[in-house]
Amino acid sequence: MTNHSGGAGSPSRNTSTTVDDWWGLGDLLALATERLTAPAEGIHHAIADRWFDLAELAAAPGRRAYHALTGSIYGSVRLAGSALGTVIGLGASVIGSRDGLRPLWRSPFGSGIQATVNAVWGDELESRRSNLRIELGLRDAQGKAIGADPVALSQAFPEPTHRLVVLLHGLGETERCWHGRNGEGGGAVGLGEVLAADSFTPLMVRYNTGRHVSDNGVALAALLEEIAQGWPAAIKEVALVGSSMGGLVARSALYTGRAAGHRWASSTRHVVTLGSPHLGAPLEKGANLASWGLRLAPETRPLGKFLDHRSAGIKDLRFGAIREDDWNGADPDTLLTDIVGDYAAPDDVDQHFVAGVVTAAPTHPLGVLVGDLIVRIGSGTGRGRRRRVEATDVRVLGGRRHFDLVHDPAVHEQVRVWLSTGTGHRPD
Asked: Are 274 and 245 in contact (CB under 8 A)?
């Protein structure tokens, strides 16, 4: 479907963006119907073909008639899904003029659903210019979009500082992942608040995690340059902090910004990653292996193709791709082929990597095997057999799962120390 107003990630007027939300719901219904009927139809045809093959040539007319009939049925289902999606959008356009609609993606729950859908099919939503897609941009604590022009920045940040810290969430998340969790003492302090006490101004960014990491890196670099040009105070220092995929986006943006000579990039002194798969994530490697295996048999091949429709952003996590050269021209569904290059950080930038393991002792064999259940230690610290991503400092914390790192007080304190003390040491 076409984009009927502003993008889903950059609302401008309440009425128009609410209508966009409902057009986005229609887009989701149409896309989900298309994606889910394809494997069912494929399996149906494959099983039928197996029986028709037993009948050999005598079954040829029957095979053609059967496939024509079932194809029309599945096609009708897809058409109905697309038509219903269009009806929802058109109805929203009519009702929205009377302010009778409620927004879908503005609440924490709604934005979480939108972020999840973007993680799975975000590149497809982007190519369709769907109203469901998320556009990369600044967000405030309530999830409201903040413009990057001088007036909007002055209004959103009435007390700007000379130090900026950019917070980047992980796959399928939003900037709300940086909000503090209530601990035993009842306090809810997020990492942004901790760093604000050290004169950093936190900038929370929401982005479409289904797009290529490199595409998000380019978009983030452009956004930060626009912010640097309109920031109400002189910028003396910039730090990038990314959780999981966000760490890869941070490294990608810095590479792009330095290559383009951006002002913000020349002021960047720190990149901090929390549980980032610098060398890849086992779950994505497993999905790659599963889709390859499913494509071997006719009856399961449609499931393999369905699995192959996962987003480009997810596939980038297979080996930690951060630049276009890491994927351009390559078959994204080739079995476990690593063509990601080695990219060192600039000499004047410190990279700090935090990794977690589920076992209390980081060296425990189980902890070494499973890491934080999403990212293994070697990947989180950038130390692999074939590739190595150099870091100034590395910290491995035991007894932590992947999503614990963003909220862990020990992580908060470690990040605060790193950003406050400056240059560290290169681990051996």
From this structure: no
Q: Match 């601990």 to its residue by tokens.
A: 183
| Stated pTM of the model | 0.89
- CA-CA distance, 147 to 226, in Å (whole number)? 10
Strands 268-274 and 237-243: parallel
Tell me the per-residue pLDDT of 61-73, one tens digit each, with 9 for 90 and over. Answer: 777 787 788 888 8
pLDDT in tens, 375-419: 999 999 999 888 999 999 999 999 999 999 999 999 999 999 999
Angle between helices 14-55 and 60-96 (to 10 degrees): 170
200 vs 123: CA distance, rounded Å:
33
The span from the CA of 287 to the CA of 265, in Å, is 35
Rounded CA separation 397/182 (Å): 21
- Please state which CATH class domain 137-281+339-421 belongs to: alpha beta
Determine the pLDDT at residue 428: 41
In the structure, how many helices (H) and strands (E) does the chain have?
Answer: 14, 8
pLDDT at site 58: 59
For residues 232 and 228, give the distance between their C-alpha atoms in angstroms, rounded to a whole number: 9
15 — pLDDT class (breaks 50, 70, 90): low
Contact assessment for residue 324 and residue 365, using Cβ atoms and an 8 Å cutoff: no
- For the chain, domain boundaries: 14-127, 137-281+339-421
Contact between 306 and 37 under an 8 Å Cβ cutoff? The reply is no
